[in-house]
From TrEMBL, chain A:
Name this polypeptide is given: ABC transporter permease
Record-level GO cellular component terms: plasma membrane
Topology in the lipid bilayer: Multi-pass membrane protein
Principal subcellular localisation of the protein: membrane
Coiled coil as UniProt keyword: no
InterPro entries: ABC_transp_permease
Keywords attached to this entry: Cell membrane, Membrane, Transmembrane, Transmembrane helix
UniProt keyword Transmembrane helix present: yes
Record-linked Pfam families: BPD_transp_2
TrEMBL record, chain B:
Domain of life the protein comes from: Bacteria
Pfam families, A to Z: BPD_transp_2
Chain ranges passing through the membrane: 12-37, 65-83, 95-111, 117-140, 149-171, 202-220, 249-267, 273-293, 300-316, 328-347
UniProt key word Transmembrane helix: yes
Any Gene Ontology CC annotation: plasma membrane
Keyword Transferase carried by entry: no
Record GO terms (molecular function): transmembrane transporter activity
Keywords, sorted A to Z: Cell membrane, Membrane, Transmembrane, Transmembrane helix
Name the record gives this protein: ABC transporter permease
Membrane association type: Multi-pass membrane protein
Matching InterPro entries: ABC_transp_permease (IPR001851)
Localization, UniProt: Cell membrane
Organismal lineage: Bacteria, Pseudomonadati, Pseudomonadota, Alphaproteobacteria, Rhodobacterales
Amino acid sequence: MDLSAINPVQLIAFLMVAATPVLLAAIGELVVEKSGVLNLGVEGMMITGAIAGFAATVESGSPAVGFVAAAFAGALLSCLFVVLTQFALANQVASGLALTLFGLGLSALMGQTYVGVKPPATGKVDIPVLSDLPVVGPILFNHDLMVYFGIALVAATWAVLKYTRAGLILRAVGENHDAAHALGYKVVRIRILAILFGGACAGLGGAYISLIRVPQWTEGMTAGVGWIALALVVFASWKPWRALLGAYLFGGVTVVQLNLQAAGVAIPVEYLAMSPYLITIVVLVILSADKSSAPAALGRIFHASR
Amino acid sequence: MVRLEKRAEPSRAWSMATPVVAVLATMIAGGLLFAALGKDPVEAIRTIFWEPLFGEFSFYYRPQLVVKGAPLVLIAIGLSLGFKAGIWNIGAEGQYIIGALTGAGVGLAFYPMESVVIFPLMVLAGALGGWAWAMIPAVLKTRFGTNEILVSLMLVYVAEQLLASMSLGLLKNPEGYGFPGSRNLQQYASAHNGDLIAGSGLHWGAAAALIAVIFAYVLLNRHMTGFHIRLTGDAPRAARFAGVSPTRLVLFCMGVSGALAGLAGLFEVSGPAGVVSIDFNVGYGFTAIIVAFLGRLHPVGILLAGALMALTYIGGDIAQSNLGLPSAAIQVFQGMLLFFLLAFDVLTNFRIRLGASEVA
């Protein structure tokens, strides 16, 4: 075992990369849950985004096209969830599960011809002076655009939810849909928009895994990241900045366990690999005592009788 | 405009008809999917639904139907109890793996001793293993209010890693020339879960599945606990006032579903699979969720739904070898089934009215 081979600067730099997929998916789901809808299909939308983004990038040669396609695919899949929960008034837990099972199958079907293909590399942002700074440069200023996009999305979500009229309406719908309906807000329409946004974010997160994190396509490659994103929303108490913190915590655990694997620590690989899931459970237990911040109408079906 | 009007009471007729309508809709949508993949849709659907039952080689496929259906029914029966009460055990796949590990572990510990008590001990160990694995989310939920959906699901990934570790380490066959995987339990008479009637596919798992169906039916219709489960699902507040303890209900439902999933894992590893290997689990724990819903969370319905789902598995295999239909297409097909089911279910609780548009 050789722990000295682990470079702390690289470790922190890679932490931000490892955290980005789960962050993107979690911020999308946070908005969905703020509107009072529980979409358990994150994993399915992520994996669909992963293959859609991968395929679009390979075919077009441009990662930018890939990411747009991934967001589109995630949103498209979430339309199925919209039909089930907003129009057919189906149980949200069951519908979310259906979305995940369907997405896993669909992605495997779409990805058959892409196994073993290498996608074109996504360029990194190179800021002249800043990127060359020692320590700070590699950690903060030498990433691909999506890392910064993720952080910007957190900031934007926070600002919109807290300071704008649209954010207030979204939260009102999530807290009490009957009251919001009585005030004349279009509950169903607002929720549909939130779900589509969540789908697009999950798709982006998935594409980040297949295009940058790994980068290649294998079946079921999201390996529970979508579920961890759901846990992250609870961890964050539905607050955007805490979701960022949680994502970095998760990214940190992932990176550390990967580095320990590479360094050949005496712990078997399998036990290191299960650590992110175990830590997610531990964190969930610690934080689940306080449920006060959950949107009051979360998971409840809305049916306007008049 | 189309408008939904809530029924005073859920329609019994639609409740029975939805699964059938959903299957028909899935056949149509699946046919379109297969056509898009360049296969003859009619031929593909016929291969999936007809070939295993009445085709040329049905004498081989019919027993397979029992082999695939048994674990699905066994797991789905357990899940349905919790689902009825709004307790979501999504981690049956993990409990299935752990049941197989503990059960096979007990069997292999006795190797090469031959005794009639070994198999019953393995059954017990399998059920206990699955039960214990399900108790983790159950206790965390009752003690700390942790979401059981997320915890039970996380534990699936933990169980998969544990399975890899076991088949490469502790349970690895010492005479296996270094290949991963355990000894073959099919070649160990005391631990082998063979056909009860030769060539029928009817192993102990199938017997257990039938017993579970009867047990669940009696529980739900004739027993206080079953009434509490139904009451909690329909009216949680009323259940609370009636003195139903949510804690006890969570422990009971999670425990039963975990134990049944563990049993399914054990019967699979000691019978059809034979060895503990990295790719031992094939997603029965997740497909069983579809089976539970398709069976309307009703024991008899689940039995029928399990048979139908087993049919799509086997028919899918045949379509794969005969028509070159990708196996993922069958996964999509099964996913569609759940979609259509949930979508058509709206007709059970609502009436569709054409007329004045609503404000929402």
